[in-house]
From TrEMBL:
Residues 46-203 form the Condensin complex subunit 1 N-terminal domain. This is Condensin complex subunit 1. One of its GO terms (cellular component) is condensed chromosome, centromeric region. Belongs to the CND1 (condensin subunit 1) family. Residues 425-454, 788-816, 1130-1221 are annotated as: Disordered. Signal peptide: none annotated. Gene3D superfamilies: Leucine-rich Repeat Variant. It comes from the Eukaryota.
Length: 1221
């Protein structure tokens, strides 16, 4: 064999004649001469080709090791190897391309099945791919370089193998789990080629190309490079590829969209695999931190983070490594304030990983924590969420203490600082040159008898120095711990405000943070835990589940050695949460505790037992914890009623009998717990207790006996007790009648016995009367009405069960209106008649107390009388009509803020019950928004918000009073006003419709609001105007208001309002059309400057044509502002007249010459003379005011209502003339 097989660049080159001794294909057979299936026969005979290559792998090792190959045999074997490898690689590439093409063509559509015939060949190749790669690897792992001359393997052979491997890597499924064997084989084969066949330069170039064109290969390429570096020891390739990426300019990266993302993902993945290899070349990547690509900045920051976590961490770093660590941390710190939000978020996440890995030096804790706290106010949701995660990581992995209460840390710090001071004082006493204090000098004989050796003196000094340094380190540690705890405490208040963000993920992270700080016993951590409690009512399921999980983690999963210990811990933690908790907090906590008690278990039973022991006093405990125990029992009763129902006698004997006067709060909480059993009423019949039950005897006695006492807690107990009577008693009206009689007799008896009856007793009696009246009406309209409806339903079901026998009776009842809706109306009319005629008789004692405050000056009596009067007014429309004027008089003139606040609440309830009666008095309600007392304003804005948002009150111009509260000095009132407008903005066009009236009312000279406050309010209100059509309409409305505005301040306010609109082209066009409305006001700076700012904002980023229009409008504003509208219009008239005089109009011929015909122009002498001005016998009268426009869109004649009160003596010309000049 005298020829040599040279691997061609492409397959077609094999048929072209080459140099001397080069192999050329002589006979190319046609397709039909091939075996069955044509070219696809390779699928059946591929094993033959594979066996040839496998034979090389078996026979070549022995031949190469023997070293007895002649030149001819070496050539034969070399040609065989080349031909086999070439054929196998090219067939592999061809089959891979066909497989990928077939997978695209035969991809199943939605709802269709994949055809078997189209996928058989592809499945067969998928099974053979790994076999081919394994065979190539086995061959190339042999040292076949001696087959070549001088052991130099030709580049074509290397390229043939590597190109096949890269072709296989381009498969989109190569990164899938099922392709892992083939992927690992390709990486290993390429590693062999780089290690043995000098392919590193080609691999570097090819990896960059793959990343540029195939974004999904970022992870695969990172895995390959890491494998080559670690398994094959080719660490230089990591640096080569990093330098290649680092040399990419910003212009190149901007042109490569997917390539940039691939580079970023490659670097991030590679840093997790071989961070130590990347350190020497990290500097080449730092240039991208100053580039424009945020993805590359993120990748570099993640590389730095992995290096810091995996390599540059610990206390045993060398000086150079420590310098690199500090430099990398400084770089990350700078990019916490990156211009791109994605970079900021990822840097915070990198810091979170560093803190979780405890790789952040202690000296940087404070600084990084301050930066994270600053990012809590970031506009980006992801940045804010990442900042919360970082702060939680700081607390969870802090190196200081498991308890971070600054108050608890202060005591040991003071103790150790005092000890350090003592030690320093002792050291100063021992220093030479300073005589020790209060120590007698040694005599000569003592010195001679006990001479101190130099070694003893040195040892004592060393020990003293060591102890002093230890003490200094301890004091510094305690100082750092206290500083860290204080920093965490400052963070809590900020994150607590994020619990009610609109973004779910931020709320979830804030909830987790509150749980973390509570677990570390940070001071004021319970504030966040309590604040997040109302989120159990959230409409967002994920937020609700986060809160439930947080409370279960904090309170319902106690730690202990036994069930009893766990129950004790759980009760202690829940009791601590309920101490001094508001009623709203307790209601929210019921949802969580109810779910816990709903699950049957040993722990739940133990908890109930511990709670009963605390309540009954079997265990020594405080009154606060007894109240918490009975409330928790009530929450358990919502899940299992028998917890309370079977122990009513215990509740009565402990809290409602003789010792009830000692603690009315315990009695009140007991009544609240008993009320929870009424929530389990069945639809069949309501659960009620008989009148002679021990519970009602105790309640009646406790209420009536307390009337003549002066305990301030009796009022709240009485209200809940009367409520419970109406919920549980079979005849509550009879019981309460006896209760009122007994209470009245006690007061009369005191009076007859010559005991002084103070105003407090009368106030408590009035409160009792008003409470009974309120619940009596509620009982009639709810319980009695529901019972009548239930009985009617049962009766109708019985009649239906009887069948046709009762059909005649049913028809008669329908005619009489005793069924269906008519029956319901009859029942409602019956209840209304009872309320109007039977509940009240005689004169009201409350009326003289309310109408004559001078005769009854006691504050508590006046408060109780007004509240009772409002409760009586709920009974019927007639009672409300008779006393409505008196109640509003009390609202406006009462000097007591509590009376005015109670009156607002009562009037809100009356507005819901009798809206037609209260509608004329709406302005009086809005007037309380400007009350001098903050508590009254707070109550007013709360009540009005509920009435407006529930569509009970119509939204009118009086809402401007709510807008004023946006600047209230009380932050809570301002936040409620802001919430009012946020909710109102959700209603269609509500704020848009109100804005003109709000502006008019706030800019009224009689109100006297300063400009800064007006601008602040308007800025908030105009932020709700987002629709283009609304903006356009508001521009016209506000411009029209210029006509009726009387003062310069009103003009200025209107101009400022216009400038706050987000104006677009249509709005600007409408502003130009309304030029007549404000043009005569432009001499005022307060009008000119806001309009000029509108032009400046429109000019930014505008198109060229629109920009020219804006600039022309701006020039027009400036001219009128500088010269005045009168002078500008006068100049325009003069210019128009001069042009009319000097420039004659051309005289057009009546007949036009025909096209193509010659004609002569007759020249007359008169044509060369200056024409004389024509004198008109009659001058056309000029209209005094014209509002013409080029478009002639609409008639602009002012109506009588639009005529300004202050007329301006100006003459107006046509719009075309003014625009020309």
């Amino acid at each position: 064999m005298s020829w040599e097989f040279n691997i061609p660049v492409c397959v077609a080159d094999l048929v072209k004649p080459g140099g001397m001794g080069q192999y050329v294909v002589q006979d190319v057979q046609m397709t039909f001469f091939l075996p069955s299936q044509g070219p696809l026969c390779i699928l059946e005979h591929f094993d033959t080709v594979y066996s040839v290559l496998q034979g090389f792998s078996v026979a070549l090792p022995s031949l190469l090791l023997s070293g007895s190959l002649s030149a001819v045999d070496r050539r034969h074997h070399l040609n065989a190897v080349k031909m086999g490898v070439f054929l196998l690689c090219k067939l592999t590439e061809s089959l891979e391309s066909d497989s990928y093409r077939q997978s695209i063509v035969t991809a199943p559509g939605k709802g269709s099945k994949k055809s078997k015939s189209g996928s058989e060949g592809m499945v067969q190749w998928d099974s053979e791919r790994y076999t081919v790669l394994l065979s190539l690897t086995q061959l190339l792992q042999l040292d076949i370089r001696p087959l070549w001359s001088l052991s130099l393997v030709e580049e074509e052979f290397v390229s043939c193998v590597t190109c096949c491997c890269y072709k296989l890597l381009e498969n989109p499924h190569i990164s899938h789990v099922k392709s892992k064997p083939a992927r690992d084989s390709i990486i290993h084969l390429l590693g062999v080629m780089i290690k043995k066949y000098n392919h590193m330069l080609g691999a570097r170039v090819k990896v960059i190309q793959l990343l540029q064109h195939f974004e999904q290969l970022a992870g695969v390429c990172a895995q390959a490079v890491a494998s080559w570096s670690s398994e094959f020891g080719i660490k230089a390739i990591v640096g080569e590829i990093m330098r290649e990426i680092g040399q990419k300019s910003s212009e190149e990266l901007s042109r490569e969209g997917s390539g940039v993302r691939a580079f970023s993902g490659f670097l991030s993945e590679l840093s997790t695999l071989v961070p130590d290899v990347m350190i020497p070349n990290v500097s080449v990547l730092l240039t991208h931190l100053e580039g424009e690509s945020p993805s590359m900045r993120v990748a570099v920051c993640e590389v730095l983070g992995e290096v810091l976590v995996r390599v540059l961490s610990g206390d045993k770093l060398e000086d150079s490594a420590r310098a690199d660590r500090d430099r990398f941390l400084d770089t990350l710190q700078e990019h916490i304030h990156d211009t791109h939000s994605h970079v900021r978020a990822r840097v915070l996440q990198v810091y979170t990983r560093i803190v979780n890995s405890k790789a952040l030096p202690l000296c940087r804790y404070t600084e990084v924590m301050e930066l994270a706290v600053g990012r809590l106010g970031d506009k980006s949701v992801n940045v804010c969420k990442s900042a919360i995660q970082l702060l939680a990581a700081f607390i969870a992995h802090n190196p200081y203490s498991c308890k971070l209460s600054s108050a608890d840390l202060r005591k040991p710090l003071d103790k150790e600082m005092a000890k350090l001071k003592e030690m320093k004082d002792k050291v100063k006493e021992k220093t030479p040159g300073e005589p020790p204090c209060n120590v007698a000098p040694l005599t000569e004989t003592q010195v001679e008898e006990h001479p101190p050796t130099s070694t003893q003196i040195q040892m004592e000094d060393i020990l003293d120095d060591g102890e002093l340094k230890k003490q200094e380190m301890l004091v510094q540690y305690l100082k750092d711990t206290e500083s860290f705890a204080l920093q965490v405490e400052r963070t809590i208040s900020i994150i607590n405000n994020l619990l009610y963000w609109k973004t779910t993920t931020v709320v979830q992270e804030a909830v987790q943070f509150c749980v973390t700080v509570c677990e570390f016993s940070v001071a004021d951590s319970l504030s966040g835990v309590r604040k997040m409690l109302p989120l159990v009512w959230s409409a967002d399921t994920s937020v609700k589940e986060s809160v439930l999980h947080a409370y279960k983690r904090l309170y319902l999963n106690p730690q202990g050695d036994s069930t009893r210990a766990k129950a004790q811990t759980l009760v202690d933690s829940l009791s601590a949460l309920m101490v001094d908790a508001s009623l709203g907090t307790i209601q929210c906590l019921e949802e969580i505790v109810q779910e816990f008690f709903g699950c049957d278990g040993v722990l739940q039973s133990s908890v109930v037992q511990v709670l009963w022991e605390r309540f009954s006093g079997k265990r020594e405990t405080s009154n606060l914890h007894r109240r918490a125990a009975v409330l928790l029992l009530g929450m358990a009763a919502r899940a299992e009623r028998e917890v309370i129902l079977s122990n009513l006698d215990t509740l009565c004997s402990v809290a409602l009998e003789e010792n009830v006067t000692e603690d009315y709060l315990l009695a009140r909480d007991t009544v609240l717990s008993i009320c929870n059993i009424t929530d389990h009423q069945s639809k069949a019949s309501p659960f009620r207790l008989p009148m002679d039950h021990q519970l009602f005897s105790c309640l009646t006695r406790a209420i009536s006996d307390g009337v003549i006492l002066t305990d301030p807690q009796w009022q709240s107990f009485m209200e809940q007790a009367v409520r419970l009577i109406y919920f549980l008693s079979e005849s509550p009206d009879v019981l309460c009648s006896h209760l009122l009689q007994r209470s009245t007799r006690l007061i009369v008896l005191l009076y007859l016995m010559s005991f002084p009856v103070n105003s407090v007793c009368l106030a408590q009696l009035l409160s009792l009367c008003g409470c009974v009246a309120f619940w009596q009406v509620s009982y009639l309209e709810r319980s009695v009405s529901t019972e009548l409806r239930r009985r009617r339903g049962e009766r109708e079901q019985k009649e239906e069960a009887k069948g046709p026998e009762s059909s005649n009776d049913s028809c008669m009842e329908e005619e009489l209106g005793l069924t269906g809706a008519s029956a319901e109306d009859t029942e409602a009319e019956l209840i209304r008649k009872i309320c109007e005629t039977e509940l009240l008789s005689g004169e009201l004692f409350q009326e003289p107390v309310c109408s004559s405050p001078g005769h009854y000056p006691h504050p508590q009596l006046t408060t109780a009388a007004c509240l009772a009067l409002s409760q009586y007014m709920m009974i019927s429309p007639g009672m409300c009509m008779d006393h409505i004027r008196l109640l509003f008089t009390v609202l406006e003139r009462s000097p007591l803020p509590i009376v005015r606040a109670n009156a607002i609440i009562a009037l809100g309830d009356l507005t819901v019950r009798f809206p037609n009666i209260l509608e004329p008095w709406t302005p009086n309600l809005y007037a309380r928004l400007s009350d001098d007392d903050s508590s009254v304003r707070l109550t007013a804005v709360t009540v009005l918000t509920q009435l407006v948002l529930k569509d009970v009150l119509k939204v009118k111009g009086q809402v401007s009073e709510v807008a004023v509260l946006l600047l209230d000095p009380e932050p809570h009132i301002a936040s409620l006003a802001l919430n009012f407008f946020n909710e109102l903005a959700a209603k269609d066009n509500a704020i848009y419709n109100l804005l003109p009236d709000i502006i008019s009312r706030l800019s009224d000279p009689q109100r006297g609001m300063n400009e800064e406050d007006f601008n602040t309010i308007m800025k908030q209100l105009f932020s709700y105007i987002t629709k283009e059509r609304q903006t356009e309409s508001l521009v016209e409305k506000l411009c029209q208001r210029f006509r009726t505005a009387k003062t310069e301040r009103q003009w200025s306010d209107l101009a400022v309002s216009l400038s706050l609109l987000s104006m677009c082209e249509r709005g600007f066009k409408r502003l130009q059309e309304c030029w007549e409305c404000y043009s005569d006001k432009l001499t005022e700076p307060g009008v000119y400057q806001p309009l000029l700012s509108i032009a400046a904002k429109l000019r930014r980023g505008a198109k060229q044509q629109f920009k020219a229009q804006v600039e022309e409008f701006e020039k027009k504003l400036t001219v009128v502002h500088t010269k005045g509208l009168e002078n500008v219009e006068r100049e325009a008239e003069c210019n128009e007249e001069s042009q009319t005089t000097l420039t004659p109009l051309p005289v057009r011929s009546a007949h036009k010459p025909r096209r193509g015909t010659a004609h002569r122009v007759a020249v007359d002498d008169s044509d060369l003379m200056t024409p004389k001005q024509q004198k008109h016998s009659q001058r056309r009268p000029r209209k005094p005011i014209t509002f013409s426009s080029d478009e002639e869109e609409e008639d602009a004649v002012m109506q009588e209502s639009e005529t300004p009160k202050v007329t301006t003596p100006i003459s107006r010309t046509s719009r075309r003339t003014r625009l020309r000049h």
